[in-house]
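Pasting as-is:
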Amino acid sequence: MKYVTSIERHGIEKGMRVGEQVGLQKGSAGIVLRQLQNRFGAPEEAAQKHVHALPLEEIEALSDALFGFASRADLGAWLQQHPLPASSSQN
């Protein structure tokens, strides 16, 4: 069995936390997009990319807000009010 230093162990644990966070973000984005598709039809590709690029906290806020949406236009308005962080890209 290979010896793992405390620094390596710390790196492994951090990697696992980051991976878990990314998995939650991607899964949550997928659920929100499915809910939107079932209600209004598939969102435009740009809107889908925007949702996938949102931080988890914003995706959770969108999941709450979508229950009050009356049309697909409400999604566009919500996304305009919640721009992506400068370091994120929609491409």
